[in-house]
Amino acid sequence: MTDKKSKLDHRWLTVIVASLLALILLLMPTPEGLTSVAQKSMALFVFALIMWIARPIPIYQTSIVLVLLLPLIGAVKDQSSAFGALGFDIIWLMVAAFVLTSAMSATNLGKRIALSLTTRFAKTPTQVLVIFVIVNYILAFFVPSTTARASLIVPIALVILEVYQELPGKSKFGKLMMLQGIQNNAFATSVIMTATSAQVLAVGFINEQTGAKIGYLQWMMGAIPQALLTTLFAFFVGLKLYTDKDKSKEKLAQATAVLKQQLEDMGPLSKNEKKALGIFLITLLLWATGDYQQAWLGFHISTEQTAVLSMLLCLLPGIGVIKWKEANIKWDLMIFSAGAYAIGKAVDKSGAATWTINHLVSMIGLDQINPSFVAVILIFITIFSHLIFTSKTVRTTILIPAIITLAKQLGIDPAPLALVCSFGIATTITLPPHSKVNTLYFGTGYFTIKDELVYGLVSCFIASCALCLVYFTWIRFVI
């Protein structure tokens, strides 16, 4: 009884603190340069952030509150900006990803792939994690979409966890696999210039404003050291944080033997497995050729359109492999995501994020600091700025030109510094709303917002240090 009362008191305290901070930000005099709309959106963002981390109520209920309050207090111009969030392309993508996951599960194709991977290349959970690191890096070359890669990997990871009987919310191994999935997606993305449009935009800014001639190869050669260093150190930190000491070698050996037997018992590919495999390969092909479809076909099929097409193929009579009622779609996650993206969009569009970053730079007084230290500060700002921004493109648009201008004023060669900072744009790994990839992995239920925040902040620090090392040593050999 006492524990229940203590939990209830803690929940009420969280709600009161979050509400008071939001009210203070809402009612205080509007700071110079900040609009009233931006002030309101920032107040709601702070409220939501506290509520999502502490979870006094389910996170989807906090999102419902946001969707109601955004138009009610005037944090967005019209109601559709908030209520229309449920129609965002990310929501459709998530629904399609859940259908694809369900199809792979129902046909046993996902299980077959998972069993093949684990029995041939991994005998321990750590080796399974290493395999997924490698897969993320390989796919980055062929699938020019962070979200598409996550949509491919998540279903296979879920089946592996099912085979190992790792339950959501209870499994340390499952928690680590999903959290590292988010991080390795970002680290691998930083290596390939075309893996996200924000990086292509960054190169455009650098080449235009500095006269540099950075291309695909220069980007890759410059980015590889920092990505590998960050991946390696973050991997071992994850093992330290989430190692399950109760897992014995004997248990793992027994599990491997069971997995081999299960693979043998499955026999040859069934008709439905072949159908699911065909749909899977079509999806992979369309995602991998996304940058070339316009030139080849005269039109472009987006990542979201490809996912919805695949969902349709999975459900169509005669062609499909599951029925709608068999699709395990987590609608509470859809509601949470809608609220998260609605508040993120409000903060971005109102100018609240831009105002915050600009005042942070001014407050630090970067023009009064040693140039080498300025470079370090800018690298850290680039990495950690995703805590405020929900869009890689917005961060690129604001930060990279500003970094180039500041570097020129301080007598720093702008191209190397801006390029190294650009490598950090993809590192959006601390909260679900910060990336579609984060949201997809979060939907598996294996980790909490607090888990992602803690591990993400540690890995962001590692990434920042790796970028600093690359800036002061390696990057000048590349450009």
Cα separation of the termini: 65 Å
Give the biggest beta sheet: none
Low-pLDDT residue intervals, each spanning 5 or more residues: none
Mean pLDDT: 84
Order of helices and strands: HHHHHHHHHHHHHHHHHHHHHH
**Shape annotation:** globular
Strand portion, in percent? under 5%
Count the E strands: 0
Enumerate how many helices there are, as a single number.
22
Radius of gyration: 23 Å
Structural class: mainly alpha
Measured as a percent range, the helix fraction is over 70%
Main location: membrane
GO molecular function, one term: organic anion transmembrane transporter activity
Pfam family, one: Na_sulph_symp
Transmembrane segments: 12-31, 59-76, 82-103, 124-142, 186-207, 219-242, 276-295, 307-324, 331-348, 368-389, 410-433, 453-474
Question: What's the short version?
Answer:
By secondary structure, the chain is mostly helical. Among the domains are: 10-86; 91-326, no CATH class. Helices cover 73% and strands 0% of the residues.
Q: How would you explain this protein's 3D organization?
A:
Helices cover 73% and strands 0% of the residues. The chain has 479 residues and is mostly helical. Among the domains are: 10-86; 91-326, no CATH class. The longest helix has 27 residues, at 216-242. The mean pLDDT is 84.
